Amino acid sequence: MKYASQKVAYWFFASAILLLSLQIVYGFIMGFAHLGYDGWHSVIPFNTARAVHTNLLVVWILLGFMGSAYYIIPEEAQHELVSVKLAYIQLISFLAVGVTAIVGYHLNYWEGRKFLEIPRPLDWLVVINVLTFLGIILATLYKGKKRTTTSLVMTMGLVFAALLYLPGMIWFDNQTMDSFFRWWVVHLWVEGVWELIMGGILAFLLIKLTGVDREVIEKWLYVIVGLTFLSGILGTGHHYYYIGVGKIWLIVGGIFSMLEPLAFLAMALFAVGMYRKGEKKHPNKLALYWTLGTAILSFVGAGLLGMAHTLPQVNMYTHGTLVTAMHGHLAFWGAYGMIVFSFITFAMPNLTGRKLYDTAIGQLAYWLTNVGMIGMTIAFGVAGVAQVYLERKVGLEFGAVQQEIEVHFFILILTASMFATGILLFIYEFFRFGKPNNEAIGIEE
Ligand code: HEM
Ligand code: HEM
Ligand SMILES: [Fe+2]
Question: Is the per-residue pLDDT at 440 higher than 70?
């Protein structure tokens, strides 16, 4: 760390991991409900728990991205953030909107649009907030000495993510139209512009951790950006198969979404390749493990498990079942959860000046979270396949099927407990680093 303003990243990371732990609490409420223990129902019904779980997920990932940007951009641009005060205001107001939305869900103040449950009036506050964030980033880049490919790819991802939020705010009375544009946010985020943010963070980490030349690493970024756009944009069609739009989407969606894993494969090959090529002298080995783990698990969770249900012939049966939850968990965790964790693991020693590299607790957190999440994915997968068969082949009624598959949620709770223990250890380790400070890293106040 070279710039005092980078310290603001710490508070974004601290908020992110605390919201993640709240997300997990709601995950358990749903897990137990699936197992047949739905005692909370009158206070927190399943739909509320689900909206809170998934919205907290998006909020903490975005906080992780913002924190990473506040760390990366000054270093890449060689310039302090233009306003640290504004960055703190932006954090606090972002949290305030998030908390308001989540309290609202418990009071039935929500829109029943999966992932975009946040009511439109609050959307406007999100827009103002994100504009402030982008303003700080863009102004810093503008004033900075350098504009590197890494910082530009990351910034491009952040700007496009903000723009793509807008189509989701248009009001439609027509369900098909509403669904059509909802995917511009949900799909084009995770299978489009967020991949650019991830690619940028990945490149930054690999430059720092492997010691391979920037030129080599940044060349790969062009390949990743190219593959992402080539496949991801028209790949949106895999959500249009049976929503009431033209049949052409069966072909377009099928073909282009089958190509989407290529971008994730490129990221995995890229990270492993740079790891093998580099001198690996950096002492923060755990950050390197997280980085490699991200590249590999994102390929499995997003690429392979996405591909598993992306053809129209398959999706006709699996749509909206626990097969989707199987893929949703490993894709979100493997790509975006893990890239944020990689970055936090890399940044903490630099922010605080404490060289707690490669500790036993840190390693245990790594293995428990990742093995736990793979276990959860398998549990969801087995439950999902049973659900598809009973509900859509045999023709049993939805509720009856849910009862039949309750037994699979025992393993889900078990593996989720493993995952949650890993997260608790990670959080413990995070706070053991202490607060960020200038003194420890030799910056004059
Ligand atoms: C350890 C704790 C967790 C448990 C017990 C848990 C459990 C659940 C359950 C039961 C559902 C609802 C499935 C349904 O609709 O029937 C769900 C949804 C979801 N969870 Fe989790 N979860 C946990 C952690 C996470 C984490 C860490 C992530 C992401 C990094 C995540 C991402 C998601 C997503 C994306 C959905 C929506 C899936 C879909 O659209 O079908 N969850 N979770
Ligand atoms: C990191 C990247 C990815 C993430 C975080 C992710 C996450 C998700 C989530 C949360 C859903 C449920 C959305 C909803 O119903 O509102 C979903 C659905 C879906 N994803 Fe992904 N995904 C990723 C990449 C991919 C890729 C690369 C493919 C294809 C190769 C894919 C194929 C699908 C399909 C076909 C569905 C629809 C499932 C259904 O009909 O219920 N995903 N994904
Ligand atoms: Fe998609």
Answer: no
